[in-house]
Structures are given as structure tokens and as C-alpha cells.
Amino acid sequence: MSPRTRLAWGLVLLLAAMAASGCATVRPWDRDLLAEKKMRFVPVPLEAAADDHIYFSTEGSTGGMDAAGGGCGCN
Amino acid sequence: MQLEDRGGASVRRRLAAAACVLLAAGAPGAASGQSATPAAATGEAAVKWRFEGSGLLYGEQSRANVVEPVARITRLFSSGQALSAQFTLDAITGASPTGAMPSGTVQTTTSASGQTSTTAANAVPTHPFHDLRGALDLQWVRPIGSLVTITAGGHASREKDYQSLGSHGTLSVDLLHRLTTVTLGGAVYHDGVFPVGGTPVGLADSTVAKHFGTQAKDVTTALAGVSQVLSRRWMLGVTASRTRETGYLTEPYKIVSVLDPTTGLPTGQLTENRPSNRMRNDVLTSSVFHFDSDVFYLSHRYYWDDWRIHSNTLDIKVRHDISQDMWIQPHVRGYEQSSAQFFVFGLTHGPPASLPTYASADDRLGPLRSVTLGATYGFRVPGQPGEFTIRGEYMYQWVSGQPAGPSLQQNNGENENGGTAGGTGGGSVSGTSIGSLLAGYTVQF
Fold first, then answer.
1. Which of B10-19, B211-220, B313-322 has the highest mean pLDDT?
2. Cβ neighbours of B279 in A, within 8 Å
3. How many Cα atoms within 13 Å fall on the side-chain side of residue B427?
4. Within an 8 Å CB–CB cutoff, is residue A1 touching chain B?
5. Cβ of A2 under 8 Å from any chain B Cβ?
6. What number is the ipTM of this complex?
7. pTM confidence score
8. Do B417 and B341 form a contact (C-beta atoms < 8 A)?
9. A1-10, B27-36, B343-352: lowest mean pLDDT where?
10. Which of A47, B8, B260, B329 has most Cβ atoms within 10 angstroms of its Cβ?
């Protein structure tokens, strides 16, 4: 099985698990922890922006959560 | 029936969360956890402005140093809209590897811009440079109804030899009782490259005349993502993006060593040359899990492109609250990539015969590995608004299979482009140490 096929199957399983978990409702009054700022995928945006810049300029690959990239002649 | 005693603090927290959810009725995106959160979503209806500032000090061992101050100001409207402007300045000094191979003797290399530099025996040839980059980013977040949020933004940046203009947008929709957020987005960038001393002809020596004027580079990105609340403590997200780059994608200042096929010693140099198209793809999976007090962040990114670079990135952070006003967050990151199909350590065939169409000796297109270790310390000063963060990180980066010296080069096979390509097992592990310090401050008022 090629790496791309494995990735595709992994994603299908992951999305299926996510869809199945949607049946288990988390009630609004149970979202106290989820409402905390530190529960974001990117809790400190400026730190993440600095990381994107560092890794974009020092490595051959890029990409992530945001459509915004910000052009740079560093790579 | 015995009622479970969950404690007064927990009840208060749940009531606060319920109030927060009610306040957030006009501000979707709670499940996404992405981008700027409007004031109403955080229950801070009175807040009108947010300021975020940071200063980055970045240094590579015997190479580039960067000082990067960033300031972002955001206007938060009571409707849930947010408008932000970010200013970035990069001051870069130091030296950058030319792409030439080390040799057993003192080596004089001429960069594509015409700069000549002398390198000690067995050292990686570099050429000195300095640059100043300024960037402006604008972003507008607007909720539409209670379940949809659109984000639109623009970017402009300029440096000595590069200019970038771009725009981006995303649409996020909350579904299934706001436990699922689907995001679609895209970005378009139109960049210009105008190398100092002109644009060199690919795979030519320094005697070949250069082109003058601006070389265009266009970048288009499409993105789709879904994030899901799996439980009261756990969120999971998957984002996939595809980016198409067209135009001038060559590094104008990088060169490739021409090697004597017998001794493996550098005997000359050529400019590098890359294809004018690149299709990049990546899938990022992110998880945030809230333990009783600590928060565990785990993400993995798989990347592949049609230059045949494949990479895996694993990123782990754990946030531990020391007290109500202090926290610490250790960070570990591992990265590995395969080399581009036209990556070479050096070309064993000199001009005019048997030159490949494309060749680059840029480490960033090679079989690169890196490990990052660091920690962020966050704190609030009693009686003062805002939060401070200080982060220190150490990164070690190396190219796997790099020939240690001329005697080892013959042990490596030739790639399809006729260059000396590194094996995966042999060669040296001579890496670069990189340190960075990032200080930040965020305040709402």
C-alpha cells in the first residue's frame, strides 16, 4: 500500500470517527473547558506566525491550518 | 438517590460556560478554535480593542541572524466583527550557504549576485547578506447569522529583492449543535523577484549575462477543513490544502558545485535551476485535549509535492498552569523530508555535455531533518492588564546522507539528473544549531 493510499484510508477512518462522535452531544453547559482560550488549536497566534516564518524559511515544505501565508523571499 | 457532589467551583464554571454560550449565539466558530475570536464569543462584550506585540530574536550558528518585531491591533465590534492590522519588520544579517560543497582546501566561490567569498577548508561555503523586510497584513472577521463566519484579508510585503501582494478568505460554518465546524478557504498571491545583480540563467557559470527586471511568481491555495468536538475535553481537526506555484521558483543566489568525477573535489560552480511549476499538498491533523489541569496539543502534518518532496512533521505541546497567573508550555517538534528529484550535493558532469535540466544543492530541498525543543512561559503581572509570554527554542537541523568529504562522494549513487545524490545511510551528520527567543504581550482594552 503506497503512503498516499495509507493517508487516504487514515483520513477516511478519522473522519468516520469524527462523524460518529458527533452523535455523542456535548451540551452547552458542558462546554466550560472548550470555551477556554487555551483550548484553541492555535492558542497564541503570534507565536504560530513566528513558527510558520521560521520553518518556511528553513525547510522544504509548508502548509497548515490557515489559507493566509504571507509571501516571503526567504525560500 | 445520591447526588454527586461536583463542588461549587465546577457549578460556577458550568454556569459561566452556559452564559458564554448564550453570549456566543451571534458569534459562531466555537468549535473551530481558529483565528481571531470576536469579543462576544469570549464573553468580553465591553472590550473594544486588542493589541498583540512580539519580538523575535533568531540566530543560526555562524549564519543568519534575524530580529523581527510584530505588532497587531484589532478592533472588536459588538456585532462580533473584528478588523485587524498587523505590521512586521524583519532585519536579517549574516551569511547564507551558497549551495557549494565543502572542500579539503580553501575555496573561493562567487554567488549568483556576483559576490565573491572565501571559505576555509572543509567549511560550508556561505556568502554574507543583509536585508530588511516590511509587511502589512489586514484581516476582517465577520459573523453572518449565528452559524457562519467569513474571514477576508490582504497582504503586502517588500524586501530588497522580493515583493508580495496577496489576498485570502475563509468561510466557516458551524453544524450539528455547533460541535462541528467546516471551513473552506483560498488565497492568491502575486509575487515579484528582482535579484540583486540581475536574474541568473539557470545552470550557467558567472560569465553568462543575467536578465534584468522582475520575475513573476504566482501562488494559489485552496483549503478545506473540519473540526469536531469529540467530548467535553477533546477537540480534533483535519485540514487539507493544495497550493499551486508558477513562475520563477529558483533561488537566484544559490549555486551548485561542479565536481571532478575522479577526486570528487569541487572544480567549478553553476547557478541552480528549478522547475517553474510546483504543486504542494498537505494534510494537517490537530488534537487538543484538556486533562484536569493540563492541556495537551498534538499535531501531525503530512506534506507532498510534485518535486517529490514528502515530509512528516510531529508537534507536541503541553500547557501546565502553575497558578492562575502563570503557565509553562514545553514544546517538542520533529521534522523529516525526502529530497526533491533534482536535488544534488554536486554535479559530476560539467558543461557543456550531460547537464540536467534542473539541479539544486539547496539543503532545504535535500533529505533534511530537524528537531526542536523549547518552552513558553506565560504570566500576568498582578494589578496590570494583559499577558506576557517568553519562549526560548533550540532547533538542530541536518541533512541526512551528506558526503563527509571527497573520499566518500564516490560511495553515493548518481541521481536521475546526473548529479551526486546523497544516500540515506552513509555520509556525515553535520548540522546547524539554531536558537530563537520570542517575547510577546497581549492586552485587551
1. B313-322
2. none
3. 22
4. no
5. no
6. 0.83
7. 0.83
8. yes
9. B27-36
10. B329
